[in-house]
Write a structure and sequence with these properties.
The protein has helices spanning 10-38, 42-71, 77-97, 101-124, 145-148, 152-166, and strands at residues 2-4, 135-138. It is mainly α and 167 residues long. Helix 1 (10-38) packs antiparallel against helix 4 (101-124) and helix 2 runs antiparallel to helix 3. The longest helix has 30 residues, at 42-71.
Length: 167
């Protein structure tokens, strides 16, 4: 019988922390934009700096998703989702910087919805759900996998009797 290694939990915790931070930054963005539109103009700079932070944190969350997938054998979806979100955040930043509001505002809504949905998904993710646990060490003298299967011993004994009967 072999022992199984439990997947590490720290990548999943890292994913959840960075996903939560991404969701909070995305939640802050419309309030900063609304304050600017209300006439408090220094919030435009805060909106821009928060957008930059959101882009960086979304990229870090994509890296955390890769760690969950590769180290914890969790789902690979968060890595792809947050990679796309990071790319959209960069596009969103460029559109806002160039004042292309016709695209900036609807894309901002999409970024907000994606960030919140992906955060919910990150908190539902579990480590070790995509592959079987890796064996660490097989016990010395353990039977081979073919002999360990049910019925393998019976077929082996029947094969020995068939050979003896053939003589």
């Amino acid at each position: 019988m072999s022992e199984f290694r439990e997947p590490p939990r720290w990548p999943l915790l890292t994913l959840r922390v960075t996903a939560g931070l991404t969701a909070l930054l995305a939640l802050l963005m419309p309030f900063l934009a609304g304050g600017f539109l209300q006439g408090y103009y220094p919030l435009l700079d805060a909106h821009k700096q928060t957008a930059l932070a959101l882009s960086v944190v979304a990229l870090l969350t994509a890296v955390a998703g890769l760690l969950v997938w590769r180290l914890s054998r969790g789902p690979g979806g968060p890595a792809v989702q947050y990679g796309v979100l990071a790319l959209l955040c960069v596009v969103q930043y460029a559109l806002g910087d160039e004042r292309v509001l016709l695209l900036h505002v609807p894309l901002g809504v999409g970024v907000f919805v994606m960030a919140e949905k992906f955060a919910v998904d990150a908190f539902k993710a579990k480590a070790g759900t995509t592959a079987a646990a890796e064996p660490i060490v097989a016990e010395p003298g353990a039977a081979t996998s073919a002999a360990a299967e049910p019925g393998a011993a019976a077929s082996g004994a029947a094969g020995a009797r068939a050979e003896a009967g053939a003589e």
